[in-house]
Specification:
The protein has about 280 residues and is mainly beta. The protein contains three helices and 19 strands. The strands form four sheets. Strands 12-13-14-15-16-17-18-19 form an eight-stranded mixed beta barrel. A four-stranded antiparallel sheet has the order 1-2-6-5, with no helix packed on it. Helix 3 links the parallel strand 15 and strand 16.
Length: about 280
Amino acid sequence: MPNRIRQLRLLDRSLTPNEAEVWVFVEAESMSATTEVRGRLMGPSCPYASTVEVAYPLRPFPKCPEGFSPLTRRVIIPEPSLWDTVSPHLYQGVVELWEDGQLCDRASVRHGLRSIQMDAFGLRWNGKPMRLHAVEWNKATSEGLAELRISGVNAVVVPAGAKEVWAEAERIGLLLLVQIFEPDVNLVQPSPAGLGWVLPASALKEWERWTEWPRAVKKMRQFLGVEMDSTLQAPLPVDVRFVVGPDTLPPLPQRPRLMRSLIQQSTVDAELGWLDESP
């Protein structure tokens, strides 16, 4: 049987206005002296701007960092274009697994360069304050997402596994908050649009079932949130970075709040807005 790619992940190692360095982590089903990784990223592309797409090859490290697989590669992008909700620049390409000079497997990838911070003052995306205007999106298809964005929405709350919705949100520039109901960390996926994962209120009462989630979400450079009612029943775990709740939810120390209103729309369950002011 030919070798196969078992896992694949891209991570922004460094990001400055002059240069971005992306590390590409590849895990193969088997490893031999002739196993190697090839590929490239192409970009950027953006639906709202004319761009010149350039190929950026995957390069081996001059000396592989200690503890890393020899299949790990790096991509250097001069003067990178960042992903945000106004200009969602994407880089796309292929990662190939070769052995004995033969192509064994290949995977398509898309990647957006971004930096995000979240604290008691709210959210900062690529260094700039951002106020969320989100709606819940329970449809399995992406039809209508573009109209939401035109109306001023900049984030959608979606169920895990909605791949079509994820891909369209990344393409048109909508942030993703993903609702999760069972502690299966295999559901955690990277995304340039990915902001965070929203756990059910019951998770606070059975936190031992969710102990693997903080590490998995942090690994993807995203944040962990939780649904709450108007009363705080117990201290929040330190790894919970934001909360989602009704308008009556009081301010919480060091946690931004994504508040539900009573506005109903035909395509969504409820409208939400980030009430905490950013500096």
